[in-house]
Predict the 3D structure of the following.
Amino acid sequence: MKDHRYKKLTQYKGIKKDLLNGRYLAIKYIDNKEYSKKFDNLRDAITWQANFHPSIPETVVKNICKEGILEQLAIKRTTRKNGEDLGYYFRDVWELYKELHINALEKSTRNTYMAVVDFFRPLFDYKMVDINATLLDDFMARHREDVIKNHKRRHNFDSVLKYLKAIFNWYRENYDSFFINPVLKRHRTIGQIKPLPHRNKKMRPEEVLAFFKELPQEWRDFAETQFYMAGRVGEVAGLQVESVNFKERIITVKNVAVWARSTKKFDYLKSMPKNGKIRFVSMNDRLFEILQRSIGKRTSGFVFRDEQGEPLVYRRIQYQFNHALKKAGLFPEYSATHIMRHSMGTITRKVTGSLDAAQAVTGHKDIKMVQHYAAMPSEANRKAVNDVERFMATLSGENPQDENNVRRLTLVPSPSSDQ
């Protein structure tokens, strides 16, 4: 029999009103476990639900419910000072950090810092000695409440907390060695709003081929190049003619196209990949054919351009990829442009049975693995891109004479460990 004691509040998911006593029952699920608590008023129920986590000290949540989220940063605390009182406010440290550190960074990183400055702004009027972990508990709770109240799309504050932590580390290193960085793991927990949606980025070989077949020729060339390079989309869009060596069959990955954050139009060409290191990719026969067709007799400029000879716009690349995925029946399981890099790494390991080969084609740096390739393409890289090309060609029926060879490749067992 249905219990009519509680009335669901349609505007507030997970909160019910007790019709017998007028109190509010707030319910929250974390890791498939239910937590609940009753409150005398709706505001406290909403605030508790938004901020409760079993790893957060109960006093923090109680203070938020008791005193109100908007007043949290104004509370005068009687805790000990953090470091030496050198007279610096956070506003001063931000200006110093911007002038002495941010301005020396790569342009896209500078733009990212400037885009998140509003996140730091509530701390501007605090002295550095007054900024501690407890204050940041309230600071994060306030930001989280704002996101929920205004129905913003943010899932968490992990990235901006990383920047805030970097500022505090810089201040400690250059000005006050007694200052303790107040950003802790619990602040990431407080800043969790909703889980990130799972996005499958690793396509099966037959799905990759189905995707390729739905692309117009020029966009298929772009996508296949990204696939065999196991590259980021900006690395392919920024690929320069002079970085393609047909004689040695080597592609030098160093230039990266950067798009404006708001318009997604080409902004500038970055001279170094994301991990700060130039890498080299061996050119298999398919890449050789595609790049010869795309470059023609040109000796400079972008390998892939639009009809006017201008660098590609990111939204156009994204549209072509997603449109082809829809036509192939692969959307929305797969979307965006990073699927080629992930798929090449996964298929390489499947075909070769080697984690080292997968690492060699993607160029990933990982402290759990040892990089077995140096400046020039390693033999692992060269063999992997050729093995995958033969595998994909036979799967598509283009090279039936290689059927026995590819059957051998597909039977290579995946290693049981990462060694």
The chain has a mean pLDDT of 83. Residues 6-70 form one domain.
